[in-house]
Amino acid sequence: MIMTEISLKINGKRLNLTVDVRQSLSSILRDKGYMSVKEGCGVGECGACTVLVDGQPLNACIYLATWVNGCEIRTAEGEIKDNQLSDVQQAYLEEGAVQCGFCTPGFVMTSTAFVEKHQGESVSRNQIRKEHAGNLCRCTGYDSIVGAVEKCMNHKDHK
User: Fold this and answer.
1) Residue of 10, 106, 153, 154 with fewest CB within 10 Å of its CB?
2) Strand ranges (E), the chain
């Protein structure tokens, strides 16, 4: 085992960690208690482990922990501020965009990145679907997820 030191910020909290150079980002996040980061496929196909790394949605199961040295990571837990759901999380709730919930945190993070990237723009349902193509759900037809994103795009003060 080859160990190395990394420094990163997770949901605003600075951490210095010693990690195995082969360790995935998802494994260190789960080891630190960020249980919203699910490992579905383990090969970057399902998106259940999606987190934001410096604002970009990435599959944490195939992203090495050493690659996040100096980066800021956001998980679904970190989107809750002062016991209030983020606009995206609230829209998912209101639109019924949750079935079993396993894939939901990854979808929420992909949606969060999408809303932040395209805020103030006019986007199509097809564009929303396309940018969520890396997230898979076995329970839903995706319409409620697209509806939740549309709701956020129309909400002026996105948190």
Assistant:
1) 154
2) 3-10, 13-20, 50-53, 56-59, 72-74
27 and 71 together in one domain: yes
CA–CA gap between residue 157 and residue 123 (Å, rounded): 17
8 shares a domain with 69: yes
Average pLDDT estimate for 41-66? 97
Grouping H, G, I as helix, E, B as strand and the rest as coil, residue 9 is: strand
Give me the domain span that covers residue 122.
Answer: 87-153
Say if residues 29 and 60 touch (Cβ distance below 8 Å). Answer: yes
User: Is the residue at 98 inside a domain?
Assistant: yes
Q: In the structure encoding, which two tokens stand for residue 86, read together?
A: 């983020």
Detail the DSSP E strand segments found in 60-136. 72-74
3-state DSSP percent of the chain in helix, strand and coil, to 5: 35, 20, 45
Distances (CA, A) of 29 to 19, 20, 49, 121: 11, 13, 10, 33
The tokens for 111 are 């949606």
